[in-house]
């Protein structure tokens, strides 16, 4: 087999491959054994039709596509190894020649990982954030805990306020006609949460219990439902119930209720200690991020959009999983936020491009510094995952290997090593 690689654009090239005729013969034999199991020929059982009779009846050409499907993946894999390229997307394949007794010739247009020209990445000077904890920060943390442990109490009279938990009935009308998805009964709404389209919750503020009101609103121009986008509507709203937070006193009893400490002062000291630990970790992470960003900014590379699109898809999937944990899904999110998938992906574009750029630079640094990952390090990572998922490490290895994840795990570990290398070789201002 021969393979010739020629670059035609920055990250795109053409791979010309020629496979020996002997391998074509082997592939045709395999294709026949596969296809003959499915054909019906009078006088023969399935799978028992002689090759000569099969070819006379159906033609040798009937085996070509199956033979190509058998031969192409292996030939392509060997060709990219021989050419020393790293594809980042599915190739566009054009078969130029295939037949009995002939070589197999094909061209593959391939998008490859971009070249990275590294700038300065050793001895980077990056300051560390202050990790001291102030009394005001401890007080703010106590207030958050106080809010978290507040009791919701039904309010018998008075007007709805921002922060209240309400129950409402509502129905939306467009040009006097109810629109789909615009009705809710005894809907739980925290005023100020931003759950509804802009302007809705603010107009519920001030209502009395059992009071009804017409709320005039205009849907955002980018609202998911095209029939409502940019349209003026009226919501008929009735306030059914108000629940308001009753905050507990910040005293020794509060400390006993929410912690293992007997006094508020002991609890505050523990909070200060934990806040300190958190700020130290946050400062370390912020400095690490700044170092990686500085190394990336110093490098020269062009990021292919296909990698950015792949990262956006991964980010969208992660976002969807987080929504599920909160009892939501993407459709509900789109409805409440007025966005659609295209708008959300556009919003993720900049962050996705930065992630891809950082990753490419870190991979280049790992290569430049020969930061390899040993089998022992992979085993250690599998052991850590074993504890996380409560499954044997050997079982996880088999699952990862079967799904092609071991290679990506090694790549992730290599990137982590590159980050560690940058931090260890940096200077603190």
UniProtKB/TrEMBL annotation:
Q: Which HAMAP family match?
A: Trigger_factor_Tig
EC number of this enzyme:
5.2.1.8
Q: Which gene encodes it?
A: tig
| Stated name of the protein | Trigger factor
Which NCBIfam families does this one have? tig
GO annotations of cellular component type: cytoplasm
On the tree of life, the source organism's domain of life is: Bacteria
Q: Which PROSITE patterns match?
A: FKBP_PPIASE
Alphabetically, the GO molecular function entries are:
peptidyl-prolyl cis-trans isomerase activity; protein folding chaperone; ribosome binding
Which controlled-vocabulary keywords does the entry list? Cell cycle, Cell division, Chaperone, Cytoplasm, Isomerase, Rotamase
| Location relative to the cell | Cytoplasm
Fill in the domain comment.
Answer: Consists of 3 domains; the N-terminus binds the ribosome, the middle domain has PPIase activity, while the C-terminus has intrinsic chaperone activity on its own.
Q: What does this protein do?
A: Involved in protein export. Acts as a chaperone by maintaining the newly synthesized protein in an open conformation. Functions as a peptidyl-prolyl cis-trans isomerase.
Using the UniProt record, name the top-level EC class of this enzyme in a single word. Answer: isomerase
Q: Which residues form the PPIase FKBP-type domain?
A: 163-243
Could you say which protein family the record assigns here? Belongs to the FKBP-type PPIase family. Tig subfamily.
């Amino acid at each position: 087999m021969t393979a010739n690689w020629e670059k035609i654009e920055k990250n795109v090239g053409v791979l010309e491959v020629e496979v020996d005729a002997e391998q074509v013969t082997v592939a045709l034999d395999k294709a026949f054994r596969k296809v003959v199991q499915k054909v019906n020929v009078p006088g023969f059982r399935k799978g028992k039709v002689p090759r000569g009779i099969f070819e006379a009846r159906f033609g040798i050409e009937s085996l070509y596509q199956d033979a190509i499907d058998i031969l192409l993946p292996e030939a392509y894999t060997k060709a990219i190894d021989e050419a020393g390229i790293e594809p980042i997307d599915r190739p566009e394949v054009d078969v130029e020649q295939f037949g009995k007794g002939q070589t197999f010739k094909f061209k593959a247009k391939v998008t490859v990982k971009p070249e990275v020209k590294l700038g300065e990445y050793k001895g980077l000077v990056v300051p560390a954030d202050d990790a001291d904890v102030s009394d005001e920060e401890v007080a703010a943390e106590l207030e958050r805990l106080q809010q978290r442990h507040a009791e919701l109490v039904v309010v018998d009279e008075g007007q709805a306020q921002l922060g209240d938990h309400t129950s409402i009935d509502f129905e939306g009308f467009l040009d006097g006609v109810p629109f789909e998805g615009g009705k809710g009964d005894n809907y739980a709404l925290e005023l100020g949460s931003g759950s509804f389209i802009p302007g809705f919750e603010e107009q519920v503020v001030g209502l009395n219990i059992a009071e009804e009101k017409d709320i005039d609103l205009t849907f955002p121009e980018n609202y998911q439902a095209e029939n409502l986008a940019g349209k003026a509507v009226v919501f008929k709203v009735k306030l059914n119930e108000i629940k308001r937070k009753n905050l507990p006193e910040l005293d020794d009893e509060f400390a006993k209720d929410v912690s293992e400490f007997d006094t508020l002062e002991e609890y505050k000291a523990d909070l200060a200690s934990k806040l300190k630990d958190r700020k130290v970790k946050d400062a370390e992470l912020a400095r690490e991020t700044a170092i990686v960003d500085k190394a990336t900014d110093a490098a020269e590379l062009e990021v292919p959009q296909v990698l950015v699109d792949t990262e956006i898809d991964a980010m969208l999937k992660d976002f969807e999983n987080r929504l599920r944990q909160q009892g939501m899904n993407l459709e509900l999110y789109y409805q409440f936020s007025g966005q659609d998938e295209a708008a959300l992906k556009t919003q993720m574009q900049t962050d996705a491009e930065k992630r891809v750029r950082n990753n490419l630079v870190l991979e280049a640094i790992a290569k430049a510094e020969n930061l390899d990952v040993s089998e022992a390090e992979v085993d250690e990572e599998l052991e850590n995952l074993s504890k996380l998922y409560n499954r044997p490490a050997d079982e996880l290895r088999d699952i990862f290997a079967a799904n092609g994840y071991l290679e990506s795990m090694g790549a992730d570990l290599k990137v982590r090593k590159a980050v560690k290398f940058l931090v260890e070789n940096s200077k603190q201002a």
